[in-house]
Amino acid sequence: MTSMALHWHEHFEDWMYILEAGDGAVLLVWEPGQERSMRDIIPREEGIKTGDFLGFPAGVERAHALRAGTTELVYLVGGNRGPFDVCHYPMEGKKTETSVDEARGMFKGETKDEDRFAASDSTGDGVAVRHHPILTLHTSTNGSNILS
Questions:
Q1: 131 vs 45, 85, 86, 145, CA distance in Å?
Q2: pTM for this structure?
Q3: Which of 85, 103, 83 is nearest to 95 (CA)?
Q4: DSSP code string of the chain
Q5: How far is CA 10 from the centre of its chain?
Q6: Confidence grade of residue 102 (pLDDT, cut at 50, 70, 90)
Q7: Which of 54, 67, 78, 116 has the most CB atoms around its CB within 10 Å?
């Protein structure tokens, strides 16, 4: 199980600092190529270890996610947050347009079908998106997540 859906941001930058990573923990990375459908999207795996810092600049079409190995994966996540973003989920064929609700101090978003592939290839499932500034996320080997 992954800690989040494979994604990339148009306007927000992400970073992750790995506090604890066991054997088999990986960063999943996907960059567009010759895919004809979402079924063709296969991210490559890059090993990660305790102390790694991972940065993902805004506007670069390079989707990413983390997957725990044999033990719990613990990391910090953060980045910049502006007034608007579009987050793409290539494996789900979705994108979420997110804006800040200044009065309430929170993000609100709308999930839409991505137009990269034909609409008939979409899974039709919504993507839940929650942005948390600098939290510790524990991902266990069974895929459950705990924020602290």
A1: 24, 11, 13, 14
A2: 0.70
A3: 85
A4: -BSS-SBEESS--EEEEEEE--TT-EEEEE---S-SSGGG---EEEE--TT-EEEE-TT---EEEEE--SS-EEEEEEE---SEEEEEETTTTEEEEEEEETTTTEEEEEEEE-SSS-GGG-----------SSEEEEE-TTS-EEE-
A5: 12
A6: low
A7: 67
